[in-house]
DNA sequence: CCTTGACTTGAAATGCATTTCATAAATTAG
DNA sequence: CTAATTTATGAAATGCATTTCAAGTCAAGG
């Protein structure tokens, strides 16, 4: 491979001058600039990006930790992040964690090793205490709210959105509701339980199923809910695909939505539009865009993204 | 920042020895190894990955060119790629192109500049002639078939799948079918037109609408199709989300699927499962996995991934 | 005519870790 | 008890481009 020294030699100038040409520095005699460019062209030379990143100490690359790479919510976040990164000429490296603490640390180590200028954590397995020291090595932005001042946040007030959704159900005359969540130990699940308690009081046994991700999970969850002795009249699903599965199960039992069963979904996904499901749209694409914007600006601001409830025909 | 020289000095050894410890080289006296590790611990040292990549000449990072980052088909491909990359400890950088030739070249230049060990092209804007020279700088794998021996391929025989889908419709008694595609100038569209011609002969005017991506596009397409003087009895949609939109439009017109209108979708997406749409599943996740596997192995093989038709209730 | 500021250029230092080469000591084999 | 390995270590070269520093030229201003 030809490098900057070869170019300098062949063009009869110093490497400094070649570097100046490469970086469009003003003060280079035009004849020298010409001949350098000519040699670059002839030798088909491209500067080595690793050398540049090494000396500049930055890579214009952002790492994005996502637990699952086949999950529509994280796809929405990633979509927003990519859009913003493209605008500002940053690269995005996707870091799937499967909620493994070790994998997560491995990725944070890569921030420390100068591979990324910053990291966006869409969801995490480790404690903040473990993560925060790494904010010394690059900007870290979270898609979940945290008090810690070292971490920028682009977040949703989920507690409030859950409160609103449950209130909507209560207003329609339901005295309880079943619901699904993703990970049992997540912050989001905690907020869900709190919001439920706030609106409906005690949760009837069997009214909460966790680890739901996809349409099939929703189908199974609905089956379980509807086999309970006190079957729920309303269900909140943590995603429209999950809600879609519930809808299908209800249909298979000759139940009508919303007459026999009310379903409310989340994230405004295509299947929800298709089935006319009412949904709580947390606008994850916007959350992603904002997160990316914060990490690029090395900002530690806390930015709340508004959610909205899209009422369709399932409530 | 502390570097390998600092560690060497503080541990009273040479940088070579520190490097040996770092890379678990066998022949290091255990007492020296201990003291090096101790200093590394104390100084909270992490080697600079850019320096390592520079000298090793490889990054264990693969770039993935995708035209759209909010498209379910490309999400499926990416999903497969990420799964395989995680297994083999490679990183994935997502490179959105929007089918811009310039952006694409920019990304290929990054391969040349040693930022990536290889590139996966899920779909392209440039000619192969323009792309191929870059295969000298790293392995390039395409998710579309090409004769060029420089390029590895993990591909689907779309012509065959379209042939099969149209034959299915013909067998059910349809004498023509309308269909949607993504980009008009894509290879896939060409194959579609050829397959149509093979099965049904000449395409009735207005029976092909391009640039369809999402549910809303499908809704609009169905509207246009069903307003034609000779309205089609069957439609092939380039994606289940598009098909979902068609389904919705048909419903809005009090039409029954499949009695009044037959719809066949593509890629086995959640909305299709939800609506019970028959679909041509090209198994894009597998295509992605295979593509990633090829690029990691620097293989130029041509691997055909089998498709399958999932018959549900819309045909 | 001298000073000042705008140009122009190259040598050398810098960023950081790996790897080759040379050397030497300690074992093992014959 | 040699010869051949194995073990152990450091100096120096290597990968590559940027940036600072020093120094020189040239033209304009006073």
TrEMBL record, chains A, B:
UniProt keyword annotations, A-Z: DNA-binding, Transcription, Transcription regulation
Source organism, top-level taxon: Bacteria
Pfam families (UniProt xref): LacI, Peripla_BP_1
Domain HTH lacI-type: 2-56
MF-aspect GO terms: DNA-binding transcription factor activity; transcription cis-regulatory region binding
Record-given protein name: LacI family transcriptional regulator
Lineage of the species this protein comes from: Bacteria, Bacillati, Bacillota, Bacilli, Bacillales
């Amino acid at each position: 491979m030809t490098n900057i020294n070869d170019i300098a030699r062949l063009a009869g100038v110093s490497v400094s001058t070649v570097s100046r040409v490469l970086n469009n520095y003003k003060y280079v005699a035009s004849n020298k600039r010409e001949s350098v460019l000519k040699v670059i062209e002839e030798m088909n030379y491209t500067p080595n990006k690793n050398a540049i990143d090494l000396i500049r100490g930055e890579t214009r690359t952002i790492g994005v930790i996502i637990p699952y790479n086949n999950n529509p919510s994280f796809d929405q976040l990633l979509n927003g992040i990519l859009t913003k990164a493209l605008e500002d000429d940053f690269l995005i490296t996707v870091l799937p964690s499967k909620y493994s603490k070790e994998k997560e640390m491995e990725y944070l180590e890569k921030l420390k090793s100068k591979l990324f200028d910053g990291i966006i954590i869409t969801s995490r397995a480790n404690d903040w205490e473990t993560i925060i020291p790494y904010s010394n090595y690059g900007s870290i932005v979270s898609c979940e709210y945290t008090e810690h001042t070292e971490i920028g946040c682009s977040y949703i007030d989920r507690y409030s959105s859950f409160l609103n959704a449950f209130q909507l159900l209560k207003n329609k005359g339901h005295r309880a509701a079943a619901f699904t969540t993703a990970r049992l130990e997540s912050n989001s699940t905690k907020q869900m339980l709190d919001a439920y308690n706030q609106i409906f009081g005690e949760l009837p046994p069997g009214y909460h199923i966790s680890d739901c991700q996809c349409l099939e999970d929703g189908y199974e969850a609905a089956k379980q809910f509807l086999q309970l002795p006190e079957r729920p009249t309303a269900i909140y699903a943590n995603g429209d695909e999950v809600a879609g599965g519930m809808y299908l199960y209800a249909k298979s039992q000759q139940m009508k939505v919303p007459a026999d069963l009310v379903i409310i979904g989340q994230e405004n996904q295509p299947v929800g539009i298709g089935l006319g499901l009412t949904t709580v749209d947390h606008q994850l694409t916007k959350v992603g865009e904002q997160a990316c914007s914060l990490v690029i600006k090395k900002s530690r601001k806390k930015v709340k993204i508004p959610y909205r409830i899209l009422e369709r025909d399932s409530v």
